[in-house]
Amino acid sequence: MDDLEDGLRKFDGTAISSLSEIRAACRGRAGYLNELAAFCADARASVSAGATWLLKAELAEGVELAPEVTAQIVGALDRVVGWQAALHLCQSVEMLELTSAQAGRFLEWARGYADHARPFLRAWSLHARAILGHRFPEFEDEAAIALRTAEADAAASVRARARNLRKLLGAK
Question: Is pTM, for the whole model, over 0.90?
Answer without folding.
Answer: yes
